[in-house]
Give the backbone structure.
Amino acid sequence: MNSQDESPDEPATEHDDDASGDGADDMSAAEDVETRSRRTIREQLATCGEATAILRKIDEIDASTGEIVRRYEFIEKLLEPLARVA
């Protein structure tokens, strides 16, 4: 389902990042996803642009296919908008 098919009040998925993400607590990432509160799309949009996530781009080669696989590693979440950080 793409975002156009979702209603504004539909519950958020596990990909939503409303936790601090700084890894400072003792909770594992899986436990954190299970216990943090879910936000609706409307709630997510209300806070869109208020914080900046710092990610590291990692390109790896799949040994079986030779294909380059790109992934992103979370580094830190800043509680400032990107324009202010830049």
Observations:
- Residues 29-35 form the longest helix (7 residues).
- The beta strands are 52-61, 68-78.
- The radius of gyration is 16 Å.
